[in-house]
């Protein structure tokens, strides 16, 4: 049975880095027999100029039908050439909502070759290998009521609403427990239950779900302020961390630095499990369209390539192939392959395509 993969490079460096991860996917299809039907589609300014839509029908269909979407990036100065309403109609935020991609996974892994390049990093980052799961479709970013109002005394008051329901907490917690089962069997749930009602509910529901279905997984709880400190002090203690939307936003950027460069970081956003046990997934590098370096062929494709590792593991069900690609990335780096963003003084700087070559060779 063919697994459907839509490849959407998008804008800025998106198409440049995605071209390399597309080559890697092709390699796994032909050389390792991974059964997938690849469909490439355009997104952004180019289709807008041709069709009047940033998300043309063909692309929307490809994404609707896909089991997995490999996404590049969107945004940048060219955005200004597209009217706001045309942008919004097919924006990434609305796509995430359309597919209900509620669990955002960001693996944080200190690459051995890079962590040895600095004494400080080698000491702190050795053995760092954890995944942050951030709830992506609820919490204070979406809660109602929200707004800015005028007060009788002439001041203004801005307000947002933090909210979580039982099912919203449970489904993302379930993703965390299931992922932990495939890793080191530990979940750390992060909240602020000493001051927030939503966090009290969060903690109760996560605890109850574990008692009901995941007694084999070790569960701990941590306040978010302490979690921020622990990520800096001793990140190797974590296996899977699960948290709400705003805490996850901040903690994942903080943790990101453990792996060296924004250009290296992969992510996956997962939707609900359907009645056939499948779940829609969007894989993308954490970085954006990087307009400052777009068009020069120097972007680091490893964020996108490492997103393919996640796709192999989670959608394509090929853990050995995921391990193989992970080793290839490590080996390429150990052999000294560096794009400009991770090169140290005196090292040759590879182009985007040359980094793709290095991973394929490895
Ligand atoms: P950015 O991630 O595009 O760039 C931040 C900095 O990191 C830049 O200096 C860039 O050159 C560098 N960088 C990023 N990726 C790199 C790579 N692969 N290799 C080497 N260097 C890399 O973030 P920024 O500048 O805040 O946003 C630019 C545009 O991207 C905005 O329009 C933003 O809305 C959009 N964006 C889109 C995302 C998506 O499509 N999921 C995610 C984040 C931002
Ligand atoms: Mg952020």
In short:
The protein has helices at 14-31, 45-51, 57-65, 84-89, 92-98, 112-115, 119-125, 166-181, 197-213, 224-233, 245-256, 302-314, 319-334, 352-361; strands at residues 3-10, 36-41, 68-73, 103-109, 129-135, 147-150, 156-159, 186-191, 218-223, 240-243, 266-273, 279-285.
Give a verbal description of the structure:
By secondary structure, the protein is of the alpha/beta class. The chain folds into 2 domains: 1-111 and 262-362, Isopropylmalate Dehydrogenase; 118-259, Isopropylmalate Dehydrogenase (3-Layer(aba) Sandwich), CATH 3.40.718.10. Helices cover 42% and strands 20% of the residues. It is built from 14 helices and 12 strands. It has helices at 14-31, 45-51, 57-65, 84-89, 92-98, 112-115, 119-125, 166-181, 197-213, 224-233, 245-256, 302-314, 319-334, 352-361, and strands at residues 3-10, 36-41, 68-73, 103-109, 129-135, 147-150, 156-159, 186-191, 218-223, 240-243, 266-273, 279-285. The chain has a 10-stranded mixed beta sheet, sandwiched between helices. It has a two-stranded antiparallel sheet with strand order 6-7. A hairpin with a 5-residue loop joins strand 11 (266-273) and strand 12 (279-285). Magnesium ion binds next to helix 11. One of its GO terms (cellular component) is cytosol. It is found in: Cytoplasm. Mg(2+) binds at residues 225, 249, 253. It catalyses: (2R,3S)-3-isopropylmalate + NAD(+) = 4-methyl-2-oxopentanoate + CO2 + NADH.
């Amino acid at each position: 049975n063919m697994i459907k993969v839509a490849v959407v490079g998008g804008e800025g460096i998106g198409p440049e880095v995605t071209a390399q991860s597309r080559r890697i996917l092709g390699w796994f299809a032909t050389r390792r027999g991974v059964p997938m039907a690849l469909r490439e589609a355009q997104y952004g300014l180019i289709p807008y100029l041709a069709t009047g839509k940033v998300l043309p029908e063909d692309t929307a269909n490809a994404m609707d039908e896909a089991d997995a979407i490999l996404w590049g990036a969107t945004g940048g100065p060219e955005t200004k050439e597209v009217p706001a309403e045309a942008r919004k109609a097919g924006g990434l935020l609305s796509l995430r909502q359309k597919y209900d991609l509620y669990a955002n996974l960001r693996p944080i892994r200190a690459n051995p070759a890079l962590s040895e390049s600095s004494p400080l990093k080698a000491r702190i980052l050795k053995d760092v290998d954890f995944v942050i799961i951030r709830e992506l479709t609820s919490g204070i970013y979406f809660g109602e009521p929200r707004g800015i109002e005028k007060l009788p005394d002439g001041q203004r008051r801005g307000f947002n609403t933090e909210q979580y329901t039982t099912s919203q907490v449970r489904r993302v917690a379930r993703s965390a427990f299931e992922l932990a089962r495939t890793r080191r069997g530990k979940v750390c749930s992060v909240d602020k239950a000493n001051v927030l009602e939503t966090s009290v509910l969060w903690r109760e529901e996560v605890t109850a779900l574990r008692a009901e279905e995941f007694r084999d997984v070790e569960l701990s709880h941590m306040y978010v302020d302490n979690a921020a400190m622990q990520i800096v002090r001793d990140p190797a203690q974590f296996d899977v961390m699960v948290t709400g939307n705003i805490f996850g936003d901040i903690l994942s950027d903080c943790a990101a630095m453990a792996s060296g460069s924004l250009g290296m970081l992969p992510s996956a956003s997962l939707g609900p499990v359907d009645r056939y046990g499948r779940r829609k997934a969007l894989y993308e590098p954490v970085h954006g369209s990087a307009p400052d370096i777009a068009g020069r062929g120097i972007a680091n494709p490893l964020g996108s390539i490492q997103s393919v590792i996640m796709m192999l593991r989670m959608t394509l069900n090929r853990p050995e192939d995921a391990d193989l690609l992970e080793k290839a990335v490590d080996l390429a780096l150990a052999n000294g392959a560096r794009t400009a963003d991770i090169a140290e003084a005196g090292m040759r700087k590879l182009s985007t395509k040359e980094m793709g070559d290095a991973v394929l060779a490895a």
